[in-house]
Protein 1
Amino acid sequence: MAAADSVEGILTEIGFGRWQGLVLVASLLLHATGPAQQVGSTLFSAPVPFRCSHLNSSTHSPSVADDTDNKRTTTDEDLLYDFPSQCLQEIYTPVSDAGPYINRALPDGVSKISLSQKATGLPSCPLIEYDFSTFDSTVISEWNLVCEDSSFRPLFQMTYSIGAILGCLFCGQMSDWLGRKRTLQIGGLLTLVTVIITSISPWYWGVIFVRILSGTGTILMLFPMYTLISEISPPSQRTITAMLPGLIYFLFMAVLAGVSYILPHWRKLIIACNTPLLLFVPITFLIDESPRWLLQKGRSTEAVDILKKAASQNKVILSSASSVTLDKLSQMSKDIVTEKFQGNGNSTDDISTCQMLTACVKSRGMRTILFVTPFMWLLKRSLYIGIILNANNFTSSNPFEYVALSGTMGVVAILISIPLTLKLPRRTLLAGTLAFGGILLFLELPVPAEYWWAKWIMVMASFCLVCGAFQVNYLFLTELFPTVIRTRGFTFTNLVGSLGEMSTPVVTDIAVQYQWWAPSFTFGLAGIMGGALVLLLPETKDKPLPETLQDAEDRYWLSHKGIEEEVTTISKDTAKRKEAFQV
C-alpha cells in the first residue's frame, strides 16, 4: 500500500492540532444535533393520555346512577382512569347482543369535560381532551393521531428514515464528485431550512414531507463528516477522533431529555435542539477539503498546498523525505496522480457507481465487504433504534427518564469503548458487544413484571453494549473501504441499514400490540446475527487506510485469510504501479 503509506506517513508527521481541530469542532456540533434528528420522535411524537366523548356530551360524564335503567350494577372493574386513552367503541360495550350500551365511566366529580375539548372528525372520538400534565403539545396531540388515525403515528419517524435512504442514494456520489466539504455545506443548509419549516408548518403532511428532506440533509452531513475526519487524522489519533463525536451524541441525548422537560412543546423543542446548526454551517466554509480526495481526483497541487498549510497550522516542520514527496506530488500531472491513487487510468469523474460496483464484485475481498457490511448494519441499526424508540414497551412510562438514562448509558458506553478500541481488535469488540447485547434482550423476556428493576438493568446494559458497538462500527467502516469509494461504500452500507431503522416503528408501535414479546425477541435476534456477521470481515486495527481497491484486496488476504501467496498472484498486475510510487 505504497500510496496509502506515503499519505499516512505525512499525516503522522503533521500530527493532530489546530488544522484538524476546526473539523473536529464541526463534527461535534453536528453530533450535538443528532439525537433530536434521529431519535427525537420519542419526545416529539410522544403519546399523550386522552379521553373521548360524543358531540352531544353534557358538561360532565354520566354517573353510576345513569345506568340504573339498564339494571346493571357498576363495579370496580368498570371504572377507568381519568384519561384512559381509549376510543368510544372500546369504552361503550353492549350488555348483550341486542341490549343497550353501557357507559363505563367514573362517578361524578372525577371525570370532567373541560373547555379544552376539541373536535377531531373521528367517528370513534368526535371530541377529545388531552392530559397536558407532561407535554404541552406533541405531534400526536396537535393532529389527533389517535383511534382510527393512530396508524399515521409511525410516519413521523419512518419518513425520516425514508429521507435517510434517499440521502444514501445521493450522498456517496456527491461526496466523490463534489468533495467532502461541499457535500457538508449542502447538507447543513438543507437541514437548517427543514428544521425551520418543520417548526412552523401547520399541516401534518407538510411536516411529513419536510421530514424526508431533513433525513436526506442529515445523511449529507453525517457520512462525509466521518469520511473527512478519518482521512485527515493521523493513524494514532483516528480512534479518538472517530469515537469522541459519539460521546457528544449521547451526552446531548441526555441533554435532549432535560430540554424537553423544560420545553414540553415539540415545535419549540425541535428549534432549541438544532441551534448548533447555526454554528456548524459557517464552519463548513472555513475548513479545508480532504487532501486524500484531492489526490484521488488528480488535484495534486491543491492537496500539497493543504498539507503544507496543515503542517504550518500545527507548527510542524516536515522531514526532508516528506518534503521531497510533496514536491514530487505537486509536479505530477493529473493522469499520473490518478493512476497512483486509484490503481487504474481513469478518473472517478468517468466511473459511474455501477462500474465501481462491478469492479468491487470482481474483487473477492471487496465482494465480502460489500455483501456483509450492509446486512450487519441493517441488524445493528434495528437493534439500536429499536431500544430507543421502544421506551413505552420496555417498562418505562416516563419518556424523559428513559431518554435521559439512554443518553447516560451511551456516554458510559463510549467512555468504556475508547480504551477497549485502542487495545482490542475491531472484530472482537464488535462481535462481542452486539451478540451479548442481543442475548440480554432475550433474557429480559422471562423476567416477571414485578421485577421491573431487573428488566431495566438488562435493557440498559444491552443499550450500553450496542452504543459502544454503534460508534466503533463507524470507525470500522471507514477503515474497510478504500478512498476511491469510501463515501459511496459508507452510504451504500447505511442505505441498507436505514431499511432496518425504517422498519423499527412497525415492531415497536404495531407488532407489540399483537405480541408483547415482539420487540425484545426481534431486536435480540438482530444483535446475535449482527455479531456473527462481523467475524466474516477483515481486521483493520493499526492498518493504514486503503487508497485503492487493490489495497483492500491485499488486506483481505493478508490480514483476514493470512494467505500471502494469494496476494502475490493478485498483486502481480499492480506491482510496477506500487514500485513507481516509492518516491
Note: The two ends are 13 Å apart (CA to CA).
Protein 2
Amino acid sequence: MAPSQKAMLETRWKPLRDLDDIIEMERMPFKQRVSASTTYDLIRSSADRFADRPALTTLPKGTPSSGGRTLSYRDLFDTVTRTANLFHRLGLQRDESVSILLPNIAEFQFAMWGAEAAGRANPINPFLDVEAIGAIVRAARTRILITLPPGHASGLFERAREACPPEVVLIAVSDEAVVGDAIDFSAELALSRGDRLDFALPATDNAIAALYHTGGTTGKAKLVTHSHRNEIANAWQSCCCFALTRDDVVFNAAPLFHVTGSILLSLAPFSAGAHVVMGGPDGFRSADTIASFWNIVAGYRISVFCSVPTVYATLLNSPVGQHDISCLRLAICGAAPLPYSVAERFFEKTGTIIIEGYGMTETCSTSIVNPRDGERRTGAAGIRAPYQDLRIAVLDDAGGFVRDAKVDEAGALLLRGPNVTPGYLPASANEGARPLPGWLDTGDTARMDDRGYIFLTGRKKDLIIRGGHNIDPAIVEDALVGHPAVAAVAAVGKPDGYAGELPVAYVVRKPGYGVTAEDLVAFARDRVAERPAAPSDIYFVDALPMTAVGKVFKPTLRLDAVRRACLSLLSPDLGYALEDIIAVNDSSRGTVVEVTIAGPPDEKLADIVRGILSPLSLHFDLRWGGENVVR
C-alpha cells in the first residue's frame, strides 16, 4: 500500500471533538491524505480493497418488499467502467458532458461516475420543464443525455427530446426494448468491456468532473463546476466528520441530482467501503418510503442517513413499532435549520442524535458540522470540516473585502479549500463571487464564537429553501411578470414549520386590473419551471421597497413575510391578546420576531407562543407591556 493511502486509512477515523483536533489533523498536507486523482480511481481503490462486500442496493419501489438488487464493489466498478467506455464509444470528449435526467435508480450511479471518467457529468433535476432543461444542456455542452424510455409515465424522454439539439445522443434506461431513436442503455452496456478503460483518465485532479445546476431564470442556467479533486476531497472530509467506515450501511433517499445524494451519501461511503442502500426512485418524496423507513432501517441494518427538517418531522409521526433500530448510530440534517423540538423528540423516539451541518453545491457538500464526538452548541451550524478554510468578513456595499469580523460579529461567510469549486459557468457568473483571491462568498452571513463555532445569521443571496430544495426567486418572478395585471413583482421565502420556507410573491398591480391572489397563484403554477417554485401566497402592495440604485430591497420583504407568517399562526389562539408582531434583523441572532401580548405576564400564553413558533426555527422575544420575559 502506498504511504499516502496508509496515512489516509490510519488517520481518517480519529474522533473530531473540537477545532483543536482539526488543527492537529491539518499538520499533514492534504495532498498526502488521498492518493486518488479521479473519482474513478477512488471507486477502483474501493473495488480492490472491498471486492466482494456489498456496495450498492437499490429498492425499486423504496420498500423492503420491492425486490432489492445488490451489487458488490467488484460489480459496481465493472459497471462504471463499462458505462465510461460506452460514453467514450459514443463520441464523448473530455470537455463535453453527459446530462443525467433520471430518478434515483442504479443507472444514475453508473452514469454519474462513468461520465466523470470519460468526460463530465451533468445531473439534472427531473422536475424541471423543457425550457430549463434546454438551458442547462446548452450551458453544459452536452454530448449525451441519459433518461427513461419513450412513453414512460414521467414524460422525461419527451421533455429531453424537445429540450436537446439534434446532435445530442439520447440513451434510454429500460427493462424492455426501447423504441424510437433512443439507444438502449442495457444492450449497449453489454458490448462494452469492464476490465479496463479504452481511454486515458485526466492527467490532473484539477480536471472538471461535474457540472451542477444551481439556479438561474428561465432561458438561462448557472452551473457550478466540480474538479475531481473537489469531489475526492469532500468525500474524505465527509468520512472524517461522520466517521464513515466499511461497517456502515448508509441509507440514501436524497435526490442524486443534488450533492447530498451524489457526494455525501454516495461517493463518501463508496470511498470508505460502506454499503449504500438507495431508497427508491422518488426517495423521501415517496409516502411508501416514509411509511417503510423503520422497516428498512431494521431490515438492512442502516447506521447512517441524512435528510431535511421536513422529513424528520414526518418520521416522528411514523411509529417504530417492534422494529429493532439499535443499528442506527447517526442522523444528519442539512439544507435548513432544524427546529430544536424536532431534534429533541427524534432523540427521545430513537435514541439517535441528529448532527446538523452546513454545505453547498459549491463545496460539493459538507463544509461545517457539529462535531459528532464533541460539543454540539444549540443554534450553531458547527465547526469547519478538516482542510475547510473559513473566515467571517466585513464587506463593503460593492462586495469588496474590508476586514475580518471580530469574535461574534456578523459578516459574510467565506470559504476556501480543496473542496471549493474553481468557478461557475458561464464565466460571467463569477463576477463578485470572490471578495479575496481563492475565497468564495457563500452568500450567507454568519458569526463565529471564541471556540470556532459558526452561527448563521442570515442570507445575502435570494434563494428560497423549500424542504431542502433551492428555489431561485427569479423563477417565480418570471412566471408572474407575464400576467397582464402585474406591474412589478418580487418573490421571497416565508417561514413554514414543515417545509422550512414557502415561496411567496409581493405584487404591484397595474391600475384598473382586479386580479385576485388566487388568480395569480394559478397563473404562476402553470408557468413555473419547477413545481415547488409555485407561490403559496400573493401579497398585493402599492410599491416594492427599493435601494438607492433602484433595485428591489428584499430584506424588507423577507421580514414582512416572517411577520405575516407568525401573525397567521398566532392569531387564532391568542386573538385580541395579541397586540403586535414585528420582525427585525439582529446582528448576532439573525431574524428575531418580537411578539407583544396585552396584559400581565401569563405563562399559559407564553407556552402557546413557544409551541407555535418553535417549529419555525426563528428566534423570538415575548413582551408584556414592553417587558421581555421569553427569549
Note: The chain has 17 helices and 31 strands.
Protein 3
Amino acid sequence: MWLVLFGIFLPSWMAIVGGTYWFFFRWRSPFSLKSVRPKEPLEMDQKKRDKVLKKDFTKECIPHDLDAVVIGSGVGGLTAAACLAKVGKKVLVLEEHDTAGGCTHSFVEKGFEFDTGLHYVGQMHENGLTKVAIDQITEGQLEFVKLDQHINTMHIGQGDDCRTYTLLSGKTEMEAHLKKQFPNDTQAVENFFKLTKLCSKQIPALAALKILPRWLALYMLKSGIADRLLPAHSTLSDTSASWWAGMQTNNKDLQLMFNYLFHGTPPKDSSILINSLLVHHYKRGAYFPKGGASEIPYHISNTIRKYGGEVLVRAPVSRILLDAAGAACGVVVRKGQEEVEVRAKMVISNCGVFNTFNRLLPPEVVIKPDIQERANLLKPGKGCLLTFCGFDATPEELGLGQATNWFYKDNDMDQMMDTFFSLSKDDAPENIPMMYFTLPSAKDTTAKIRHPGKTSMIMVTYVNSDWFDEWNVDSTRGDDYMAYKMRFANNMFDWACQQFPKLREKLVYQEVSTPLSTYTGAHLGAMYSAETLDKYDPISMAKNRCDTPIKNLYISGQDVFSSGVAGELQGGLLCASTVLNRNIYAHLHLMKKSLKRAKAKENARLAKKLQ
C-alpha cells in the first residue's frame, strides 16, 4: 500500500520541486558575490563626477544593437538597467534633466549642495535584502552611514499649544519610546507594531503577485488561495490608515504618529498596510549615503557603463516608437529642433504610468480600452513644493541635528488636507497645514569637508497643481510667478523659525521648486507617485505590474510598488524580473543567506580566537 502511494505521489512531488526550481533558477543570475569589490576612495572632483552624471546625449554616444532603452534615470530605471546590463543586455538610459538620478540627484548653488529627494532610507543594515541588492547594482561601491537613533521630531499645533514628540529607530526602542510618550495608550502602540511586523513578513509574497504569471496571480486571489498566504494583505490592504488608527485609540496625537509619513494622500484614503510598512522600514535604523544622494546614480551609472551600456542626459523623449504590429521598438529624442530615433528591442519607462500612457504613446493607442484600464489602476498624487535654503552656519550652530522635523497645524490630518486642497489659489499660501524639513548637511558625514561652514535645508509641502496652471503655458514665467511661489516659501520658513529662531539670521540663499519645475518630471508634480487605497487592493496589485498591454513596453519605478527610494528600487528589481522572465529576488535571497552564514562563521572564528 505504501509503495503504491509512494509511486503515486513521488512523481507529483518531483514535478512540483522541479517546476519550482525551473521557475526560480533556470537562468543565470545577474548577481554574484564576486562582483562586489573593495570600496574605492570617494570621488570629490566635481568635474570627474560630471563626466558620469552629466554626459550629454548625442547620436555618437548611442550604443549599437540596443536591447533596451530606459526612459528616466531615477533609481527604478537605473536599477532595471543595471540588472539587465549585468546579464549581457545592451542598455541605454535617457534622462530629460541635465543630471542623472531623478529624486537622488544633487545640485550646487551659491556654494550649497542640495540633495533633492532622498532624506534617508531604511533597511540598509548589513546583509539585509535591500543592502544586498544595492551592493549588487553598485558592485559594493556605495556606502551608507547609519544616522542617529533620533530620526524624526513631530511638532503638532502652533505657539503655546505646540506638542512635540520624537521617533527613535531600534528593534525594541522605537516601540518602547512611543509607549513612554503615550503611557495611556500602550496597547494601541503594541497593536501597531504587531501590525508592522506582520505586514513586513508578507512583502516577498506581495512581490510574487507581480512576478507570477498574471492569470495565476489573479486565480490565486479570486479563488481565496492568496487569503491564506497573505492574511494581512487580504484584510488590511483596503483598510484606511485613519479607520485603523481610530479603532485603536481616541488620542488624535497618537493617531497622527501612526500616520505621520504624509505622501500626498490623506490617511483616510491611504492603506494602513503601506503606512505601517513605511514606519517599519526605519525600525532597524535610518541611513544616508556617504558623499550625498548623488552617490547612488553615480555608482549605478558606472555599473551600467562597465557592462557596455550608457546613461545620457539632456535627452527628452517625445514619444515611444511602435512597429507595424503595435510593439514598442524604440523612442524619439528631441534634440533642439531635431528628432532622433533610438531603436531598441524593448522600452522601459521610469517616468511614471501617467506620463508613459498619456504623453508618450500615440493618441489612437491611448484610447484603447486595455490601455485605459491599465492607467486607471492608479490615481495621481498631490504635487510637491520644495524650498531650498542655504545658511552660513553649521547645523550645530543652528541648533539642529540629523532628525527630520515634521510640522502639523492640527492633529487631524484628514481634515487639514481636505480643507487646504479646497482653498482657492490666492488663499492657499498662507494656510499651509503641514510640512517637513530635512538637512542633508547634517546627515552626510563628508559635508563638513566638502562644504565647510555651510548648511543646506530642504522644506517640503504639498499643493494643488492647478494653483499654478496660469504659468504652465509660459516657460519663461515672470515676477508674478516668483512672488506667488515665494509666498509659500516664506510661510514655511516662518513656521520653521518658530521652533528654530536661529535659522532666520543665518539664511543667505533660497529657491523654490513647484509642480511646474519638479526635477523628476512627475505627472502634476507628484514626485511621490500615488499611495491610495485603490493601489493596494489585491486585484490592483496583481494587475499593476511591469508589463503593459503593449508588447515590449515595460514600467519601472514607484508606480509599480511603492513610493520613495526603496519603492523605486523594488520597482526596478520587479521590472528586471519581468523583462528577464526570471525571479531575481530568489537569487538575492540565496545571496543574503550565504552572506549571513559567512558572517556567522566569521563571528564564531573570532569568538574562538578571543577565548
Note: The first helix runs from residue 2 to 25.
Protein 4
Amino acid sequence: MSLKDLKEKIINEIALTSVVGHYIPITRKGTTSLAVCPFHDDHKPSMHVTNEKRFYKCFACGAGGNAIDFVVNYKNLDFVEALKEICDHQGINFDDYYQKKEKPPKLLMAEKILTKSSQLYRKLAETKAYEKYEEFIKKRGLSNDIAKTYSLGYAPKDSKLTSYLSSIPNEKERSFALDIAKELGLIKVDKNDNKSHYDTFRDRIIFPIWDQFGQVVGYTSRAVFDYQKAKYMNSRESFIFNKKHILYGLHLAKSSIRSKDAVILVEGNMDQIALFNKGFTNSVAVQGVALGETSLRNLKSMTTNFYLCLDNDQAGWNASERIHKQCVEAGITPKFVDLNPHKDPDDFLQAEGSIELQKRIEGAKSFIDAQIDKIFPSTLPEVLDAQLALLNHCFAILAPMGESLEATERAAQLAKRIGLSSQPDQIINNYKQFLKNEPQSFPNSPKEIDDPGLMTEMYHVDEYEMDESYLQYQEEELLSASALSKIETTLLSEIIKHPECLTSDKIGELLDFVSSNEVKKYITKLKEIFYEIDENEFVSIVSSLSENGSFSTQLKDTISSALKNYRPVALDENKVSQIVFDINKKLQEQKLKLLIEEYKMRIKACATKEESVELMNLFSKAQQDLKKVKDLRHK
C-alpha cells in the first residue's frame, strides 16, 4: 500500500465531519453540517461540511477542500504530516502505507555517527563538569530549555568521540565507522601513528547542524580559550553536508514560518538561536554567503514574505545583496530589517529587546529601497549629467526586477526624487532601454542551478511531494518554457527510462547540457522524490509531476513517451555509473553533431575567404572531437 492509497482511504472512507470535528465544533442543521470557519474572523457558522461530497466550503472567505486540505491548513502542516495526524486520531497505522527505500550502508553509518556524536556532546555538556560551557550559556542568556532544544554540547580535549567509536566491539563495523567519521571530518589520523585517531573538535562549544527534516548533518563549533587559533570551526562538506543546502533551524521554524506567513533570514547560528529564544520562531540562519536553490525553493513553498536581518556590516550587506538578487529572480521582494547601531540580531536583542526588534520588522522597507537610499547623497546634484548618472545607478539596482510594475513605478518616482522634470512615460522608456543595453540575470531568465540536493534529502518527504495532487513546484507563476532542444528531450527520455541515474553524484554533469529552465526544474524535483517512490508507483507519480507542474506540452509528451519504455532496475553502483556514462556520451555526440551541421551551413553562407578558413578549422576540430567521444569507453 502507498500514500496514494492512504489519501483515497481518508477521503473516501472516513466521514469528513469526523476529521473536521476533531478540531472544531460542528452542528447539524437539517441535512447540512455547519461550523464557524477557523480561517477568518467568522461570527456565525459560514462553513459547510458535506460528507456526501467529501468537501468543506466557507461561503464567506472561500476556504474549501477535502479532509486532508483542512488539516494541512488548520494545523499548518505539510501533506505527509497531515496524513500522520489524521491516522493518529482515526486509528489507522500510518506505517502500513509508508515504506521508505533502504538507505545505502554509508549513509546509514553517517547518520548513526552524527546522531550518536550529537548525543555524546550534549550528555557531556549536561554533566556541568565543563566550566567554559557553563560560562558561555550564562553569558548568552540561554535557558536550559533552549540548550536542550538545540542540543548544544561540549567537546573536551580528550577525544571522547574517538574513544566511543574505537570501543565498537565488531572489528569490521568499528573500522567502517572510523573511516566514515574521518570522511565527515569528525576525527583525524595522528600524523605520528597512522593507526591512532583524535577528535577534530576539542575544547569547543558544539552546535549541531540539521537538515530540514531534523537529521544532524554536521557541526559548528566555537573556541573557548584565547589561544585557540580558529574561533569557529565547521564540519567540512561531504556527501551528507553541503552548507548551501542548509538553513540552520529550519526543522524548528517550519511550522512557525507557515503560520506567520513570513521568514526572518539571519547569518550565524547564535543569531538564529537568540531570535528563537526571544519568540521569533520563524527565523533561520543562512550557512554561507548565499541561498542554495533547494533552500530558496523550500522557503518559497512556505511563504513569500522574506525579511533580511543579516549582520550590520559590509560583509552582511554584501550577503544581503546576493540573497536579495536570488529572491527577486524567484519572484520574491524581500524586506530589510535595519539593526543600526548594533552589529547583529543577537547584539540588538541584548541591547534593545524583543519589542523594539518587532517594531523594526513591522517597519521594514523593501531591501531594494534600502539599496537606493544607500546610494543617494545627502545633497542631491544640481548638474544634469550628475542627476542622470545617479538615475542610471538606480536603474542598475532596479534591473534584477526586470520590467515589472514594481520596477517601472520606482524608476518614475526616483527620477522625480532626483529632480528630473521628464514625464514618467519617458523615464520608464529610458529604463527599459537601459535593460536592453545592460545584460542582467532577470526574472524568468535561464540560469545555472545548484546541485539538485543532498544525499540525505533524497530519503525524506516534505512540502506535499508524495501525493499526486500535491506534486508541483508550489510557485505562483507558470514556467516559461520555449521549445526544447533535441539534447534536452534526449536527456529527459533517458532519465525517465533509467531514473536510477538520479542517484549518481555526476547528475550535475548531465544538467550542464540543459539550458531550459523547466527541464532543470523537472529533473531537480524528480531527483528529490526518487527515493520516496516505490517501483509500482513510479509511472503514476512521474506522470502527475509533469501534469500538475504547468509544464509545456512538449515536455509532457516527452515524459509520456519515455514512460512507456521504463523498466524497474535495482540500484547498483556500477550499473548506475555505466548508465550515466552512456547518457553523457550520447549527449556529447548530439551536441557535436549539431555543431557540425551549424558549421556546414555557416560555411555555405560565409562571404570572405578568411571567414571560410576559420569555419573550416572549427568544423574539422568538431569532427575530431566527435571521433574522440565515440571512442570513449566506460572505465
Note: The longest strand covers residues 216-223.
